[in-house]
Write a structure and sequence with these properties.
Layout: E1 4-13, E2 17-27, E3 32-36, H1 43-51, E4 58-63, E5 66-67, E6 78-81, H2 93-102, H3 111-125, H4 140-152, E7 158-162, H5 170-186, E8 190-195, H6 198-204, E9 207-212, E10 215-220, H7 222-227, H8 232-237, E11 244-253, E12 256-259, E13 266-267, H9 270-278, E14 284-290, E15 295-297, E16 306-315, E17 319-326, E18 329-336, H10 342-348, E19 354-359, E20 365-368
Parallel strand pairs: 3-8, 3-9, 6-7, 7-8
Antiparallel strand pairs: 1-2, 1-4, 4-5, 9-10, 11-12, 11-14, 12-13, 14-20, 15-19, 16-17, 16-19, 17-18
Bound molecules: adenosine-5'-diphosphate and magnesium ion.
């Protein structure tokens, strides 16, 4: 069992730097929670407070219902993997992994038990054949596995990882990401994982906590935060390339709603319309959010189409990323190459050409122009502009 509860947790560093404001989160036993957000938003600080490496200025942290505010790190049942995992260069992989088990605080652990734990962890991580090597004879990815193995042998109920993959190159990072998913299935622990990378957050987390400037912006499953971002920050942070934001009007016309980006007229899908109506949303200026993959090519004559001038087009293989300009606004569009004709492709790849775009009313997000909060989600208390 390892449930972790953070209640009104706050961290003020010396010099009155508030790194974390009122952090509330209930992490379930065996859940994989990811803290994600830009550098400096308070991810590491929060993780270190859970580990006990950093004092809490206000609030309470509980592990399995017990307040641990004053409990030293070693008594919290936690293993932590850091970004800068320094391995001992003069020790073999085996000894690096066994190191913490040989410390005085584990006086009862037998040689057999140490051997079993290290070799079991090595097996799961696929590093058995390297156990007798020194770290300098390993690749970056192998070293990373040793660092994880070193935490695994302690058989902790809570695994904390602070950007464990950020030192690896892109290919290795993808591979290790998949391995962490497998690892998580094999060891029955609660995971709290910190990253600034939204792809890592989306692929690893049961739930994602999106942070900015020490505030939680939204907590949800990957699909929830992608489909229903509570505010423009979350909408822009999750998903790549970033969501397009367009100032326009949301128009209520009898029982229907329309939006008018760039003088076009696009009907809001009936289910979203019903939602808007039930919340009694009136005609107003909004910021409309549309993801690049939800914009498509349209014919010039359609009333829902708008003209876009191609600035740059990136050929990604399976899709084109078109960076265009519409009435002075930058727009990014993802077009799957399989869905277009050679003529269309030629045009998209030619800077300066004019294309016509549209999107359907199903995939829109509506943000309040002032507060930047999603007018359809219920969480209205997030200080977005702080
Ligand atoms: N030891 C410290 N003393 C003072 N300020 C700190 C200290 N550690 C971190 N901070 C500040 O707290 C904020 C959050 O930092 P951190 O938790 O490391 O962010 P993240 O891990 O999200 O990049 C930052 O503004 C950072 O400068
Ligand atoms: Mg950090």
């Amino acid at each position: 069992m390892a449930r972790v509860q953070l209640e009104k947790v706050k961290k003020i560093y010396q010099g009155n730097v508030v790194a974390v404001h009122e952090f509330n989160l209930d992490i379930k036993d065996k859940e994989f929670v990811v803290f994600v957000g830009p550098s400096g938003c308070g991810k590491s600080t929060t993780l270190r407070m859970i580990a006990g490496l950093e004092d809490i200025s206000e609030g309470t942290i509980k592990i399995d219902g017990e307040v641990v505010n004053d409990l030293p790190p070693k008594d919290r049942g936690i293993a932590m993997v850091f970004q800068n995992y320094a391995l001992y260069p003069h020790l073999t992989v085996f000894e690096n992994m066994a190191f913490s088990l040989r410390l005085k605080k584990n006086p009862k652990m037998s040689q057999d038990e140490i051997y079993k734990r290290v070799t079991d962890a090595a097996k799961i991580l696929g590093i058995t054949e390297y156990l007798t090597r020194k770290p300098k004879a390993l690749s970056g990815g192998q070293r990373q596995r040793v660092a994880i193995g070193r935490a695994m042998v302690r058989e902790s109920k809570i695994f904390l990882m602070d950007e464990p993959l950020s030192n690896l190159d892109a290919k290795l990072r993808n591979q290790m990401r998949a391995e962490i998913i497998l690892l998580r299935k094999k060891i029955n622990s609660t995971f709290v994982y910190v990253t600034h990378d939204q792809t890592e957050a989306m692929t690893l987390g049961d739930r994602i906590v999106i942070m900015k400037d020490g505030y939680i912006q939204q907590v949800g499953t990957p699909i929830e935060v992608f489909d229903m971002p509570d505010n423009m920050f979350v909408a822009g942070f999750i998903g790549a390339p970033m969501m397009n934001f367009i100032e326009c009007d949301l128009i209520k016309d009898k029982t229907k709603y329309y939006v008018n980006p760039f003088d076009s007229k696009i009907l809001v899908d009936s289910s979203k319309g019903t939602e808007l109506k039930s919340k009694n949303i009136k005609t107003q200026k909004i910021i409309l959010g549309v993801r690049p993959e939800h914009i498509e090519l349209a014919s010039k004559s359609s009333s829902s189409a708008f003209a876009c001038k191609v600035k740059v087009c990136e050929m990604m293989g399976s899709e084109l990323h078109v960076h265009g300009e519409v009435k002075g606004n930058d727009i990014i569009v993802r077009i799957p190459t399989i869905s277009i004709t050679p003529d269309q492709k030629e045009k998209l790849l030619t800077a300066g050409s004019t294309i016509y775009l549209t999107f359907t009313g199903k995939v829109m997000h509506f943000f309040d122009k002032e507060t930047k909060i999603n007018i359809l989600t219920k969480h209205k208390n997030v200080p977005v502009n702080k």
